[in-house]
Amino acid sequence: VIDTVNPVITLKKYTKDNKGKVVVPGHHNYSLVAFVEDTNIDTIKLNGEDYVPGKEIWDRISYTLVVTDKAGRTATIEFTIDKDYPSVVINGKKYEKNVKDTIYYDGAVTPTVTDTNLETLTLNGAEYVSGTEVTEDGNYTLIAKDKAGNTTTVNFVIDTVNPVINL
Predict the structure, then answer these.
(1) How far is the C-alpha of 153 from the C-alpha of 149, rounded, in Å?
(2) Quick one: which of 44, 6, 42 has its CA closest to 33?
(3) Residue pair 69/41 in contact by the 8 Å Cβ criterion
(4) Would strands 8-13 and 32-37 be described as parallel, antiparallel, or unpaired?
(5) Burial class of residue 31 in the structure, from the number of CB atoms within 10 Å of its CB (0-12 exposed, 13-18 middle, 19+ buried)
(6) Can you give 46-72 as a three-state secondary structure string?
(7) Contact 134, 154 (CB under 8 A)
(8) CA distance linking residue 73 with residue 67, whole number of Å
(9) Among residues 132, 129, 133, which one has the least CA distance to residue 120?
(10) Which residue in 9, 75, 136, 148 has its CB near the most CB atoms, within 10 A?
(11) 108: which residues sit within 8 A by CB, 6+ positions away?
């Protein structure tokens, strides 16, 4: 047998019937399964351990899947499962105001976002750098999205103006 073709790996979104949508390697916020299209397989290793095609891959880590056929040809894919939403912490002096899903501050704030796979971070639609102080009065929406599509949205208001009482 002359084998000149590398094995082909298909990565799919995990479903119990293994009929999930085919996805490209990358960052995903759901479990995956891998299948190999080759009848001459020698080894299939997921992070160095034997892997059975079709078995759910669910741990929240990065993976390398290496398939080697009996002719020594290999195929490798890398992907990450990330089901965690970006964490947002806003340092500032809050005050109570009963408005759904909005935090009110009476001075400057410093939003900090942590996520190992952060893709975009915007403040009112413009690119934002985590840890940058926000000082101007106004309504703000901070959106943090990671490479797997997990998104955290935080609405906040900075209001430093004292109320005016008319007599």
Answers:
(1) 13
(2) 44
(3) yes
(4) antiparallel
(5) middle
(6) ECCEECCCCCCECCCCEEEEEEEECCC
(7) no
(8) 8
(9) 129
(10) 148
(11) 92, 133, 134, 135, 158
> Looking at the predicted structure, is the pLDDT value of residue 164 above 90?
no
> What is the Rg, in whole angstroms, of the alpha carbon atoms belonging to the chain?
24
151 CB-contact burial (10 Å; exposed 0-12 / middle 13-18 / buried 19+): middle
- pLDDT tens, residue by residue, 64-97: 999 999 989 999 999 999 999 999 999 988 876 6
27: β partners: 80
For the record, the structure tokens of 166 come out as: 């008319």
The answer, as to whether pTM is greater than 0.85, is no
CA distance 17 to 23: 16
Query: Whose structure tokens read 């390398």?
Result: 64
Three-state SS sequence of the chain: CCCCCCCEEEEEECCCCCCCCEECCCEECCCEEEEEECCCEEEEEECCEECCCCCCECCCCEEEEEEEECCCCEEEEEEEECCCCCEEEEECCEECCCCCCEEEECCCEEEEEECCCEEEEEECCEECCCCCCECCCEEEEEEEEECCCCEEEEEEEECCCCCCCCC
